[in-house]
Amino acid sequence: MAAKSAGQDKKATVKPAKPGNKPNALQTPLKPSAELAAVVGEGPLPRGEVVSKVWEYIKSKDLQNPENRREILADDKLKKVFGKDKVTMFEMNKHLAAHLK
Fold it and tell me: What's the whole-model pTM score?
């Protein structure tokens, strides 16, 4: 038998939620504000999906600063969400949280 490498035993697997268990904070659907809904859509979405959709929007509009890819240069829609012209990818989640209920 060939020995397994350490990485093969520790593959990340997503466990389905058991019936009766509450979803965790990332899985709970939240309603976006009107400003955020203009970017991600109207319906309630889990927080992780909101972040993914915002990144899709940023990449489709080429809004990352070419000199510093960690910075997001906000267009008119994102300025309403972020409250300023430029944010880092790390502070983006703080701004998104303020627009989710």
Answer: 0.76
Total domains in the fold of the chain: 1
Q: How far apart are CA 34 and CA 74, in angstroms?
A: 17
Q: Which residue range forms the structural domain that includes residue 68?
A: 26-97
pLDDT in tens, 47-84: 999 999 999 999 999 999 999 999 999 999 999 999 99
CATH number at residue 76: 1.10.245.10
Question: Is the residue at 12 inside a domain?
Answer: no
Instruction: Tell me whether residue 92 is in a domain.
Output: yes
Alpha carbons 63 and 69: distance in angstroms, whole number = 9
